[in-house]
Design goal:
The protein is mainly α. Helix content is 83%, strand content 0%. It has three helices and no strands.
């Protein structure tokens, strides 16, 4: 590995991902304290998640028509805050992956463009060399023709 090619972008992405965990924890703490955030942001996804989870477990165990009781408000707020924190971490990680993919794609495009430019330059040079070769070949034929048309003095 080359020492000079330190991937600073990857280091920044790693730093962002590491910072997302405490940020998610602060958002979770704020969600637990705020009534609006709790009632409209945390509780509905938590109750939906609980409903899906319990329904799946009941179906696996063979209970098809069992009713599912909703979580109490404290447990739902806690679960909603946890889901929110995990979603934030997932979104930050996904965003880092998208940024890394776009950076790699841009590097690939740049390298491909450089390769195409090199190929085009080589083709241009080859065409110039072919023209030079044809010109020199024509000049050589002309010199040979002139040499053959000069009468040779006879020896007496």
């Amino acid at each position: 590995m080359v020492v000079g090619a330190f991937p600073i972008a990857k280091l920044l992405y790693l730093g962002v991902r590491q910072l997302s965990k405490p940020v998610a924890n602060r958002i979770k703490a704020g969600a637990r304290r705020s009534d609006f955030f709790r009632n409209y942001i945390c509780l509905p996804p938590a109750q939906f998640y609980h409903w899906i989870e319990m329904r799946t477990k009941m179906r696996i165990m063979g209970f098809r028509g069992a009713s599912i009781k909703p979580l109490n408000e404290e447990a739902a707020a806690e679960l909603g805050a946890e889901l929110l924190g995990e979603a934030i971490i997932f979104l930050v990680g996904g965003g880092c992956m998208v940024l890394e993919y776009s950076r790699q794609a841009a590097n690939s495009r740049r390298k491909e463009e450089e390769l195409n430019e090199t190929i085009l330059s080589l083709q241009t040079q080859l065409a110039e060399l072919e023209m030079t070769t044809e010109t020199l070949d024509a000049q050589l034929r002309e010199v040979n023709r002139q040499l053959l048309s000069i009468p040779v003095p006879s020896k007496k």
